[in-house]
Amino acid sequence: MAKLIDGKMISQQIKDELKAKVATLKEEGKDICLAVIQVGNDPASTVYVGNKKKACEYIGIKSLAFELPEETTEEELIGIIDKLNNDNDVDGILVQLPVPKHINEDTIIKSISPKKDVDGFHPASVGALSIGQHGFVSCTPAGVIQLLKRSNIEIAGKECVVIGRSNIVGKPMSMMLLRENGTVTVCHSKTKDLKDVCKRADILVVAIGKPKMIDESYVKDGAVVIDVGIHRDENNKLCGDVDFESVEKKASYITPVPGGVGPMTIAMLMNNCVEAGINK
Ligand code: GUN
Question: For a tag on the chain, would you pick the N or C end, based on fewer CB atoms within 10 A?
Fold first, then answer.
């Protein structure tokens, strides 16, 4: 039976460490500030943005909320980002995605200063990660690395298989595992013999976006299985990309959904904000 990797507990630990750091910085007269921009009122985005503001409050980071109407033009949004780029009191800038269709997401991501790119989505941040230079990294894969490290799971020399190649999770995940000296394979929808590739993995990171797709037949005995997915099943219960009941019998470690990778994303965002403030 697999051991549970408790993302709720580990994310709480990280937030408490950051809270102490932010308090020390405050004593030195340094306040940390995150600007959060939401365009339109997509209900899921409103929940995510609300959770980010709550985490800021808990840690002692000031959050500036920009709730812009759906009709906001690309030019208007870039104008606001530009002001925030040049505002010395603002350490991090986050534009909640997706943005409305009339706004080009890539243009917006590029308009944020890499120094304030706490999401780690700017091409300069992505490029820095790929060549081992300092820069912000995407929060969800950074959270996965923390889950592994804080559970004392060695990455160096391990066969790491990532299923999914998105810009936010799969690609940066593979670069971060490589940075930790893992032997990394990235799988995607065109991968042949997915099951055989997955069965080689010592560490299997699943970010496919298909509920409960990965069952025990994809998993090597004793593998570490990290589930990045989040869905509602036929009974409206939260589930991941991994069939938990099936895989937990075979894996050595597994992340639950909810309470695994999910809470780590915000913790790592907060970590990036603190870094932004320190390195200003
Ligand atoms: N939408 C879904 N996930 C994210 C994220 O990590 N950052 C931003 N900015 N938007 C998102």
Answer: N
Residues of the chain with confidence (pLDDT) below 70 = none
**Number of CB atoms found within 10 A of residue 237's CB:** 10
Q: State whether residue 109 is helix, strand or coil.
A: helix
Q: Cis ω on the peptide bond leading into residue 98 (within 30° of 0)? A: yes
The Cα–Cα gap between 87 and 89 comes to: 5
CA nearest ligand 1 atom 1, residue:
97
Cβ of 94 below 6 Å from ligand 1: yes
How far away, in angstroms, is 246 Cα from ligand 1 center? 30
Q: How far apart are CA 119 and CA 198, in angstroms?
A: 29
Cβ proximity of 81 and 21 under 8 Å: no
Q: In this structure, which amino acid lies at residue 141?
A: P
All domains in the chain, ordered by first residue:
30-113 (3.40.50.10860), 139-262 (3.40.50.720)
Q: Tell how far the Cα of 92 is from the centroid of ligand 1, in angstroms.
A: 14
pLDDT at 139: 98
With a 6 A CB cut-off, is 139 part of the ligand 1 pocket? Answer: yes
The rounded distance, in Å, linking the Cα atoms of 98 and 81 is: 16
Does the Cβ of 276 fall within 6 Å of ligand 1?
Answer: no
- The pLDDT assigned to 31 comes to 97
* Cα(97) to centroid(ligand 1), Å: 5
